[in-house]
Amino acid sequence: MSLDELRALIDRHAPRDADAVPAIDGLMLTRAERPTGPRSGIADPVLALVAQGAKRLTLGGRIYDYEVGQYLVVSVDLPVSGQCTRASRETPFLGFGFRLRPARIAALLLETGTDPHAGGARRRTGLPALAVGETPADLVDAALRMVRLLDRPADIPVLAPMIEREILWRLITGEQGTLVRQIGLADSRLTQIGRAVRHIREHYTDTLRVEDLARLSGMSASPFHRYFRAVTALTPIQYQKHIRLQEARLRLMSSTDDVAEVGYAVGYDSASQFSREYRRQFGRPPGADAARLRNADEEVLTGQ
């Protein structure tokens, strides 16, 4: 019954307007009435639970399919391609998402005295940054109570933080607990790689030196490169290229700048290299791709 009520609430509250601001900080609700093509963007650390339909995320060469009764955890900022694979007007895709904040996970670990390395977190240093699990009933119930608050806005300031703690607790003690616990550990490999990921995102136009990123992460170059690829499914250079191309796509969709100018603005020295790599990534030359997206009024994936 909880999942049925969650579907009904998401169907009613999920924004039809892409610019709608959620009433609860960290909460994201998604509704789609048809399957979508792949949409590229940056997936921030998040819990994504499917209440109806199915979705696919692609990271590098890895594919993550998840459907009703399953959830996805993203642990660091990742350049992914996402699409709804099962949705219709009669049975739309319905998704619940909640942002995973490292400081709140860390605080809960400290407060509860939970062993942060339970389940082998210290040994499993090659954890990928994405994982899919079966959604337990208590996690569905917590998600349901969070969405119910949208009908009682006066309760949000008091109850939303409490329910967020419960959601985090269900994740920490659940099937993907090892991955979620590492999000809150300052000394975990995942957190160390996260520092490098944030640096690349903030300085994506700069020339990238793997040695500098390794030093920032507190590792030597060889293990850093190995762990970075294990977590993100990409090398640091590939990660930077994905960020550059996705930023270029956003700029092309939202402005009338010349294609070459956009390429230079995101860090490319050669317009021909920019166009070649853009076409390889998105399947069309930059100008044609931007025109198609503007005409179709498609959205770039931002999280869930």
Automatic annotation (TrEMBL):
Family matches, as SMART domains: HTH_ARAC
Record's keyword annotation contains Zinc-finger: no
Record's protein name: AraC family transcriptional regulator
Spans annotated as Disordered: 285-304
Pfam families: AraC_N, HTH_18
Chain segments annotated as coiled-coil in the UniProt record: none
Domain HTH araC/xylS-type: from-to ranges: 194-292
Assigned keywords, A-Z: DNA-binding, Transcription, Transcription regulation
